[in-house]
Write a structure and sequence with these properties.
alpha/beta; Arc Repressor Mutant, subunit A; D-Maltodextrin-Binding Protein, domain 2; 2 domains; eight-stranded mixed sheet; two-stranded antiparallel ribbon; 9 helices
């Protein structure tokens, strides 16, 4: 009898979804050698090469692409069975606050995984501004929050350090205009940073739009009516990052931090927080650091 092992399937799916063994190992909380060994065991069982290891970045072979759908469904079904039949006591609600601009790409993957393991637990996602989220957290209205900020407050964990970049429309010319037309939400945390750096660089500017809506800001930049700023890697596919050749000043680095409430008696918030930490480690290959 030939039986597929869920552990090897999970490692293969993690490698495929995270783009490599290193990130998959961080996501699974395993060593790289353990993940590689499990994938190799799966290939030996099937008698197929599932991964193309000839390039710097691991990719799927045609057989691997065909097998991925089956493997993913088997892992999801396995997790669903265990979640529904062995952990019925995990019920409740977690309020998770995340700044608008860092909801993607990590949080949807985490919510999908958490729901598979704890289907009876409702996660209420709040997308807001860092300043508002910190107030809500202090008032006990959020169980977990992520923030974008320069420093790290007591009790927080640094998940990633990311550059703040100027963004513009592809093949656009707005970045050449003087005064430079910029688009930021009224309460955007990056607005004062960008405007201060423009002032220091001696670049005149004018606000192209005044809005509370991130969609409005994004549409204005996409229409080549202005430039904006986003954390590297969070910009939508229809916008591009401007490099040093644009002549615009460097905007420095921002921290993505995690704060977890100690008031969660059911212990559910720490479980979700652990998944978020693992996902960021897998996505950005940077170890989390806690504040003293």
């Amino acid at each position: 009898m030939r039986n597929l092992d869920i552990t090897t399937l999970r490692s293969f799916v993690a490698v495929a979804q995270n783009g490599g063994v290193t990130r998959a190992a961080g996501y699974l909380n395993l060593t790289q050698s353990a993940v590689s060994m499990q994938v190799k065991r799966l290939e030996d069982l099937l008698g197929l090469d599932l991964l193309d290891r000839s390039a710097r970045r691991v990719s799927l072979t045609p057989a691997g692409e065909q097998f991925l759908g089956y493997a993913r469904r088997m892992v999801e079904l396995n997790d669903e069975v265990f979640a529904r039949l062995t952990e019925p006591s995990h019920e409740g609600e977690i309020v998770l606050g995340v700044p608008h601009d860092i909801v993607y790409p990590v949080i949807p993957k985490v919510l999908q995984r958490f729901n598979a393991e704890y289907p009876r637990v409702k996660v209420n996602l709040i997308a807001s501004y860092t300043a508002d989220l910190k107030v809500q957290f202090e008032q006990g209205e959020c169980d977990i929050i992520l923030t974008t900020e320069y420093g790290l407050d007591e009790g927080g964990v640094r998940l990633a350090e990311m550059p703040l970049r100027w963004i513009a429309a592809p093949d656009g010319q707005a970045w050449r205009s003087r005064p430079l037309r910029v688009a930021f939400g009224r309460r955007c945390r990056f607005r004062p940073i960008a405007l201060r750096e423009l002032e220091v660089a001696g670049i005149p500017w004018e606000m192209a739009v005044e809005s509370e809506s991130d969609r409005t800001i994004e549409a204005t930049v996409s229409a080549d009516l202005a430039v904006g700023a986003m954390l590297e890697g969070t910009e939508p596919p229809h916008l591009i990052r401007l490099g040093a050749q644009s002549g615009l000043p460097d905007l420095g680095l921002q921290l993505i931090n995690l704060y977890v409430s100690h008031a969660d008696a059911g212990g559910l918030a720490p479980k979700l927080a652990d998944m978020i930490r693992q996902a960021y480690l897998a996505s950005y290959d940077r170890p989390a650091e806690a504040a003293e």
